[in-house]
Design goal:
Shape: globular
Number of helices: 17
Distance between the termini: 27 Å
CATH class of the largest domain: Alpha Beta
Order of helices and strands: EEHHHEHHEHEHHEHHEEHEEHEHHHHH
CATH topology of the largest domain: Rossmann fold
CATH superfamily of the largest domain: NADH-ubiquinone oxidoreductase 51kDa subunit
């Protein structure tokens, strides 16, 4: 188990459940190129059709929010020098730390994946976007350590939560504003500088590097049949190990957060609340089928000694503050929803208004931010009904607000 050296996240650890793959060697700190090659060897290089075949064989899903099939994304891109490859390391959600950990501790695994995709697409246009200072320094050092990465651009990007959405990132890299351009514009069609772009988050590229190093059979030798391999999770709150954990897919959620009832957040600040882990298992297909998508891999269990409704209201206000302000559901709807939750927290009878406002948001925004905020708040209203009743009766629940769910900005100092 490794301590996560991060002043903004004291007490977090980095560990693995079973044999580490993505986190192999990180127990001794940052993995330099020599140790990386000793651990992982040289990844295979292959053309785009073969790489897509391998990605499809292990059912690799993107490790950001959408969990889109990576093979489908690759097959949708033309081969040639016009195509861009973008590693999105923005990670703007304060609760998430997994991509930051990879960039800080295993930067060569990320670069291996990005360069392998670029080689398959026959392009030299590779950009890594990052907003965490320590991750930026680690990646810059990794680029200096290897001659094949000299053409990789490492771009500082600190445009907030919505600005880290992949279409906002490609728009910013093209010289435009860091806001999503609309739901119908995909980077594979119109990305950096209007050119086709293979863009995904940091862990996705690290997983591609693992697949090319291990081969299909060994890669799929652990994890669930519907999503083989391991995945990185950020665990918060009342859990045995707060921090980043690498776990095989398909394991019971209760093994990570403990059994029994109590509010559990699955999928982070665009995720959903459940009454307890129940029979849920940690795989993206299974969780999506249950109505609780894993998104970027944040799982939080609220302890009994904090005000649960206050925790949700604080995050709802943060989500409202993160709005890009380019459409009505964000500009008007999210602040109104946050205000209603604050009224609930002081006992005002506005439950019907809260439900109505959260139901009006999905499907109406220029990006998925209103949808995610509505899922976070709407599911909380159902899971926390007993606590909301106590606030209604007494004006409070009798517990202080500890701020278990972080909302402080990260990565702004350099």
């Amino acid at each position: 188990m490794t301590a996560l050296a991060d002043a903004a996240a004291p007490g977090l650890t980095v560990t693995s459940w079973g044999s580490a793959r993505l986190l192999a060697g990180t127990g001794q700190g940052r993995v330099d190129l020599a140790r990386h090659r000793a651990l992982h060897g040289l990844p295979r290089r292959c053309e785009a059709p073969q790489l897509a075949q391998w990605l499809a064989a292990v059912r690799l899903l993107g490790r950001g929010g959408a969990a889109f099939p990576v093979a489908t994304k690759l097959r949708g891109l033309p081969v040639g020098s016009r195509t861009h490859v973008v590693v999105n390391g923005s990670e703007g959600e304060p609760a998430s730390h997994k991509d930051r950990v990879l960039m800080r501790l295993a930067p060569h695994l990320v670069l291996d994946g990005a360069l392998a995709v670029a080689a398959a697409l026959e392009t030299g246009r590779v950009t890594v976007v990052v907003q965490d200072p320590a991750a930026h320094a680690s990646l810059a050092a990794a680029r200096r350590e290897r001659p094949d990465a000299r053409r990789v651009r490492i771009e500082w990007h600190d445009h907030g939560f919505v600005g880290g959405e992949v279409r906002a990132v490609t728009r910013a890299l093209s010289g435009g504003p860091a806001v999503p351009p609309g739901r119908r514009v995909l980077p594979t069609v119109h990305g950096v500088d209007g050119r086709p772009t293979f863009a995904s988050n940091v862990e996705t590229f690290a997983q591609i590097a693992l697949l090319l190093g291990l081969g299909v059979d060994e890669y799929a030798g652990v994890g669930s049949a519907d999503e083989p391999g391991t995945t990185l999770l950020t665990l918060l709150g009342d859990v045995a190990h707060r921090g980043v954990v690498e776990a095989p897919t398909g394991m019971p959620l209760s093994a990570l957060v403990g059994a029994g009832d109590g509010p559990v957040l699955v999928g982070g600040y665009h995720g959903t609340w459940v009454c307890g882990p129940g029979e849920l298992t940690v795989s993206r297909p299974a969780l999506r089928a249950s109505g609780s998508p894993l998104n970027a891999g944040v799982i939080a269990r609220l302890p009994h000694d904090t005000c649960h409704l206050g925790e949700v209201a604080t995050v709802a206000q943060w989500l409202a503050d993160q709005s890009a302000g380019q459409c009505g559901p964000c500009f008007f709807g999210l602040p109104a929803l946050a205000a209603t939750l604050n009224e609930l927290a002081v006992g005002r009878p506005v439950m019907a208004d809260a439900r109505r406002r959260s139901a009006l948001l999905p499907g109406r925004g220029a990006c998925a931010h209103p949808d995610g905020a509505a899922a976070f708040v709407g599911s909380a209203l159902s899971v926390l009904d007993a606590e909301i009743a106590r606030h209604r009766a007494y004006g409070h629940c009798g517990r202080p607000l500890h701020g278990v769910l972080p909302t402080e900005p990260r990565g702004v100092a350099r």
